[in-house]
Design brief:
With 122 residues, the protein is of the alpha+beta class. It is built from three helices and six strands. The chain has one domain. A six-stranded antiparallel sheet has the order 2-3-4-5-1-6, with helices on both faces.
């Protein structure tokens, strides 16, 4: 059985600027999900520091919400949930497909905004 993949972005610029840059460069059905981000803030309060991105489904991936936990200058994928409320839990395979798509269609490679770490020590 495969393990869930991981991703950490070490920000070289302010976090909000990095999130905005990711949103501007998102493609293939990805966009920043400010509604989910605001919902987390309402439920968890100010200590709930997350950036959220959503994707539509395509032939390879489910429609999902990806949660980036913000800790100072680090963005770490905290969770991925299906947008389909009938699907309570997603498989590790679906999780990894969505994360790979996020890396390919949103994150790309390390750049002036952040360093990409695909195998962080947690």
């Amino acid at each position: 059985m495969n393990d869930p993949k991981q991703l950490r972005l070490i920000c070289r610029k302010p976090v909000e600027e990095v999130l905005a840059w990711l949103d501007e460069n998102a493609s293939n059905g990805w966009l920043r999900d400010k509604f989910s981000q605001e919902r987390i803030l309402k439920v968890g309060g100010e200590k709930s520091n997350y950036g959220c991105f959503g994707c539509s489904s395509d032939k390879n991936r489910i429609s999902a919400i990806l949660y980036l936990h913000i800790d100072r200058n680090i963005l770490r994928v905290a969770n991925i949930d299906s947008r389909d409320e009938r699907m309570k839990n997603i498989s590790i395979e679906d999780y990894n497909v969505v994360l790979d798509s996020f890396i390919d269609d949103v994150v790309g490679d390390s750049n002036s905004h952040y360093q990409v770490d695909k195998k962080p020590k947690m």
